[in-house]
Amino acid sequence: MASRILLLSVWVAAASGSLEVVNQWNHLQFDFPPDPVLLEKFQPENTVPTGLEIGWDRLYIGIPRLRAGVPATLAWVPRSLPPGVSPVLQAYPDWSWHTAGRGDINCTGLVSVYRTRADRCNRLWVLDSGVFTSLDDFRRVCPPKILIFDMATDRLVRSVYFPRELLRPSSLLTNLVLDDTRAPNPHLAATCDHIFAYISDTVTPGIIVYDSRRDNAWRVTHASMYPDPNLGEIDITGEKFTLMDGVVGLAHSPAQGLLYYQPLATDRLFSVSTAVLSAGPLAEGADLPVNLVGRKSSQGLGVTVDPRDDTIIFSPMTETAIVAWNPITNSHRLLAQDAEKLQFCAEVRWAERDNGAVWALSSRFQKFFLRTISKHEINIRIVRVVDGAYVSLQPHVLRRACNARSTPPTY
């Protein structure tokens, strides 16, 4: 224990000043339309973001309806603002899509969005879970869907609905990554006409694979996608809460042809070949060929890959840090550590639209969850790692592990 505390103190000294706070809020505030019902129903203490996408001129923020009182489930703020400001959020694409915030459920609109992803053709893929108040009573009010918007015009260009047989009564679709490397020729990749989306079902754990060219989808499952009952309790700066979430963290390595994934309630990181995922449904009785990539020092949610060298970047929650591990060279780096600014990083992103900078969306989610949030403190931050502040990291933070191909880990 003493050596661990010493190591963390070195992290703090080495990583001081390595984070730029892009935006921060005590509570999120919105640019409301003249709608008294929307204002009356707004409960800022229940409004916590989980999704971040970095556009060329905007930041897109997913705000799922975990509890009642969320006015808009998808919003944006400009990227051109000075660092550290607390801008009001603009509903995306506009308020007409967010009637659920006033209690009017419209299944063609947006119900509850955890995360979004932009493709290379400047389209925003919005994953809508269709679940209302998922932390309290888990009300399925609409089928889950993907809505794809043109980011230049903010107009809807495509809607994707999933076959009923792929979903379960408690399905909660929370995350997606886009893969345009499976196109049979460069032209299709350049026009985004052949994209695969890999989508996490967190509560009834599995991954849904969507083939956009054929408008077809299938589901794969594996024991590694389930939560570890021994790791459901999360400790963040001494505050503990239990959240038994299955697979939610997703990252794609184009060069390695791998999808990395992790449940929230685990200290393990897994991978599966995207060639296997994109080939179609598994034959009956076939096992998904999963590899155990490594073990982390604590649970994590956000994970991403730097495609320039296939480094995996993630945030161990108890350590309130952002770290990097290259599975090819087995090198480890501490990118940032801050007990105040890096609590519960729901997103860690390698930002193509920011020259490959690492961003994170952090919140005091544990306080939202436990209903101990204070409006007098900063509770939500979007941060950016300042390049050049990286230090070497001891390999215990992510330990290499043997392959677990076709064999689930022991829980």
Automatic annotation (TrEMBL):
Cell location: Secreted
In the record, the note on similarity to other proteins reads:
Belongs to the major royal jelly protein family.
One Gene Ontology cellular component term attached to this UniProt record is:
extracellular region
Coiled coil start-end: none
Quote the InterPro entries the UniProt record gives: 6-blade_b-propeller_TolB-like (IPR011042), MRJP/yellow-related (IPR017996)
Query: What organism does this protein naturally occur in?
Result: Papilio xuthus (Asian swallowtail butterfly)
The primary location reported for this protein is: secreted
Alphabetical list of Gene3D superfamilies matching this protein: TolB, C-terminal domain (2.120.10.30)
Name-wise, this protein is: Yellow-e
Q: Name one Pfam family in it.
A: MRJP
Swiss-Prot/TrEMBL keywords:
Secreted, Signal
Q: Which residues form the signal peptide?
A: 1-17
